[in-house]
Automatic annotation (TrEMBL), chains A, B:
One of its GO terms (biological process) is amino acid catabolic process. This is L-fuconate dehydratase. CDD domains: rTSbeta_L-fuconate_dehydratase (cd03324). Coiled coil: none annotated. Residues 200-296 form the Mandelate racemase/muconate lactonizing enzyme C-terminal domain. It comes from Saccharopolyspora elongata.
Length: 441, 441
């Protein structure tokens, strides 16, 4: 089918979540969950659009949106089929733009803008193929998958040949695992009970409800006050018993020494992992913490800027669980690289989700990993937070503590048209009524 | 003197340097050197303005400028004297903004925007004090200097007490070293001969001219083609003899293994250091390269995102020379932290310069380091490139291969008013005449 990319439309979408303290943690006391949203328009007769976004937490969502718009000249007028047939080439062209890369390189606002655009192109490709993204990816050949990956800066840890070997080993079992996935779904864990802004009573009630809903792991935010954390951890452990895993998440609050001391105080309550104990840039710091707090495990990744930092975290034995993010590294292609790195090092991937639409995106990546890369769900869980799903055209479905495999074509990235109007910042009705929006700037 | 900050003005300034291949290297073939420029306006009776900028190389300078403008709400209406008296507090407030930090954290476009604003505030403070910035900093007490630094994520490598010790040890010699600096200047090295786009003949002539001008170190760009690099390195060595240091700069072109192989081919020509051999995020990669290529030394820093990555490069023995950048990390305050880290680990700081105005800025930081931190010029050189100085109100002065100490008040950051008009993008006359500007987008 002939067609070219006509252009992109961008939207600054913000949800006033800070009004309710949903999403509050030790580093992010007042987030307004936001999407810097992009739609790719084509002139193909099927009129299919690609949708994608970067997730931010409020201020700066306009800067993020400007960065996405700055990528439009690289897209406009491109042959659509050729572009979708070579998304590895498209990724390299965007990431290695000789002038834009100066603004990173491969990190921050520009890299997240590339994530939004690359993910929107994958959404478009999957919709045109009539398949959910996880299935589209899991049906590519090992050679096609390796071609999506830029091995620059990775070859000391993972070569294209090693990546091919990993994918070929998983190939014979693909069909059986896809059937298993469609039958039973993929395990989730919930962060819903654990926000810092909640009362002890609410924590207790939400822990109980989580277990009743079938979750086998939940997560508490920690890091603001040690005595509070010990009390909340005790309450949660009392409430769920010894068999439910309780992870804790410090959201980068600590220095290396503080992290070690703090986690030792929580250790009697058997935390499953400690997440983001310190700066996401501190590979050596994570390694030191991991060594000191074992057998408690370290997890990190939602703020890891790119595959080069993940490579080092794996090389340094700095994490036990790798938490990829769908829209911080540069989209699907870079996450295929990260899944391959994790498989090479034998580290389970447990994606970061929550925010706006991150659950919708990462489910596809974890399911692709199960079917075609690691071939395992053992010790693997996808984060689940019950925020804002109602704004999506194809929201996640959780049943019995599991994500059900999406079956609609695309990347589940599309916001409802009315949401794009109502939550537009700063002029949508949610932000202008009562003048409340202005208070948040 | 009473006054408040009234607001900031931003300017997208671009120089069409790609037309001449000045500044071409293996990763940046066609840069248009650009400044995302900011002026801080106050209502104080002295009408002094603060000037600062982020340096970019063309596309995306508009996004960078939007990020600077996004910081205005944090500045507007602030008491001027109180703000300038507590730039440590101002830095923390900007860097740890609970919503904006999501876009980094502490890296990329938002962090560089903070650099521009923080540096502009220092320019303002130094102008009001009637002193060049290096001198203003070098006259602060050790306690005042430590108060500028955010030790978050650093305490496993450098504590406030250790920083105080370093500064107190340097205190008795400050006056003598300041006099020495004003007398003799600070050694420079030149990158002018070594751009990839130049012919062998031009390389030869520029090497000769550099030595004639008094430079004792020069630098060649490498990394695009090994045979070319061997030939160019041979030419340069022939031309300058054995006593002039020749550094090479790969601008992140290589993977770890390639870097090691390539540098071994250049080793017969005695390269002084190899700069940016691989990804600036790859601490472990730099450490592996450093170990493999010794006694050739590794230098890096111009793209190191923040103090946490510098901390690790030092902890891992991954570099022999630390090349701080004035406007990539978050300005003066973060560079004080980096100078202290380098002093703690005994690694010489040789700042990155060139671009637009980076020579003007970094001279102040290196001179402050000499007077009040490391107390030494041994093995230390400031990069010098002879581009675009004519656009500055207070350009650097090089004599006999040395930077002369600036004596005008401020941070030497101010562009000439006519430059702000002529090089404005996309509507200034440089970009609209002949329609040439549009060709570069």
């Amino acid at each position: 089918m002939a067609g070219t990319i006509r252009g992109i439309r961008t939207f600054d979408i913000r949800f006033p979540t800070s009004r309710e303290l949903d999403g509050s943690d030790a580093m992010n006391p007042d987030p307004d969950y936001s999407a810097s949203y992009v739609v790719i328009d084509t002139d193909a007769p099927d009129e299919v659009e690609g949708h994608g976004f970067a997730f931010t937490i409020g201020r700066g969502n306009d800067v993020q949106t400007a960065a996405i718009k700055a990528l439009e000249p690289a897209l406009i007028g491109r042959d659509l089929q050729h572009t979708l047939d070579d998304l590895g080439g498209m990724w390299r062209e965007l990431v290695h733009d000789s002038q834009l890369r100066w603004l990173g390189p491969e990190k921050g606002v520009v890299h997240m803008a590339i994530a939004a655009v690359i993910n929107a192109l994958w959404d478009l490709k999957a919709k045109r193929a009539g398949k959910p993204l996880w299935q589209l990816l899991a049906e590519l050949t090992p050679e096609q998958l390796v071609d999506l990956v830029d091995f620059r800066y990775l070859s000391d840890a993972l070569t294209p040949d090693e990546a091919l070997d990993i994918l070929r080993r998983a190939e014979p079992g693909r069909a059986a695992r896809a059937a298993e996935l469609c039958e039973g779904g993929y395990p989730a864990y919930t962060t819903t009970p654990g926000w810092l802004g909640y009362s002890d009573e609410k924590l207790r009630r939400l822990c109980r409800e989580a277990v009743d809903l079938g979750f086998r792991q939940l997560k508490l935010k920690v890091g603001a006050d040690l005595a509070d954390d010990v009390r909340r951890m005790r309450i949660a452990r009392e409430e769920v018993g010894p068999d439910i895993r309780i992870a804790v998440d410090a959201n980068q609050r600590w220095d290396v020494g503080t992290a070690i001391d703090w986690i030792r105080e929580l250790a009697p309550f058997d935390p499953w992992w400690v997440e983001e104990p310190t700066s996401p840039d501190d590979v050596l710091g994570h390694a030191a913490i991991a060594q000191a707090i074992a057998p408690v495990r370290v997890a990190t990744g939602e703020h890891v800027a790119n595959r080069v930092v993940f490579k080092q975290l794996l090389q340094a034995n700095a994490l036990s669980y790798l938490q990829l993010d769908a829209a911080r590294v540069a989209g699907v292609n870079e996450n295929v690289a990260i899944l391959l790195l994790a498989a090479k090092f034998g580290v389970p991937v447990c994606p970061h989700a929550g925010g706006v639409g991150l659950c919708e995106l990462v489910q596809h990546l974890a399911m692709f990993d199960f079917v075609a890369v690691s071939g395992s769900m053992e010790d693997r869980v996808i984060e689940y937070v019950d925020h804002l799903h109602e704004h999506f055209v194809d929201p996640v479905t959780i049943r019995g503590g599991n994500y059900l495999a999406p079956d609609r074509p695309g990347f589940s990235a599309q916001l409802r048209p009315e949401t794009l109007v109502e939550y537009a910042y700063p002029d949508g009705p949610v932000w202008t009524s009562n003048g409340r929006g202005r208070m948040h700037e």
